[in-house]
Amino acid sequence: MAYGRTQHPNAPSTPVGRRRMVACVLDQGWTIVATAERFQVDAKTVRKWRDRFLSEGDTGLEDRSSKPHRSPNRTSRRLRRQVIHLRRKRRWGADHIGFRVGLAASTVQNILNRAGVGRLDRGDRATNREPGRRYQRDMPGELIHVDIKKLAGIPDGGGWRTRGRGYVGESARSRTPGYRYIHTAIDDRTRIAYSEILTDEKAVTAAGFWRRAAAWYTSIGITCERVITDNGACYKSGLWHRACAETGTVVKKTRPRRPQTNGKVERFHRILLEEWAYIRPWTSDNQRTHAYDGFIHFYNHHRDHGSLGWATPTSILKDNLPESTTSRHPAASEASPQPSTLTNANTNTNLHTHNSWTHYRGPVSAGRHLL
Fold first, then answer.
1. DSSP reduced 3-state for 100
2. pTM above threshold 0.70
3. Nearest Cα residue to 84 out of 74, 71, 97, 96
């Protein structure tokens, strides 16, 4: 082993020492017992190296691998490849991968370590902090988390991530596409997300987003009782408070410099960066925006959530709505609720649990990216 201590070349248990041991028996006529006493080993050891030398020559004195010839219970190559594929593509941890492929987390971690991908050096949680106090509401709609993620646009042909720093024309005005603002609402109980990519974070934009989000949640059987945001300017405006009043939603705010209170939507934004925004080298902003539809569908319908006991948000929604509500809202009781404007288009995408959403080529409806 690379980390084991090495012996000097003339030690009795090295190939050179074994050759001397065998020479004492075969060339000098020593007995097995006398040779064993001379080299401070067991008599069986002397016989073993003598027999190997007689049958194989000097090659028989070399170290042999301790690996068994057969390992019937070893994880199959197909599963090992699937574990490594999920790690590199989704950047999931051993628990999540183990749940998906049906293996123990320790087995998954061993596979990852042997493949050299056992550590996630980028994007890991900060350490040496006080453990967070987690909470979760009992029913869908009791609390909706809302926040905005600012994301740089991608110039046509790709930016520096695909072309490298200092390429010709990098600083040209035509290659500075500005920023995109991802407005997101997430239900505290089910983690069902409604999200739109918009052009700014002004109060009128945030208020319009909330009206559409509340209407969409109502369409799948969720009544928004409270909404929590940070203390951004758009969320302190009168337009935002009036929009929430129109939908009958109580406004809550996080404490200053405490984004952990709104942690569910903050965690969603980290998932966006790892599993959508930076998971592949996009060549244009339209290409990345186009794939957002598929990612939101994957997130709501097919992505297993550790905080939900490895269930999907739509399955939690189905289990937590009253029967009277699901009967009034058929979309909420189905496995794949879709807004009416996107139902036909999204039905034909054939996006399954193990397929990559990056190949999704669904519609973009007026800049709105729905479930």
1. helix
2. no
3. 97
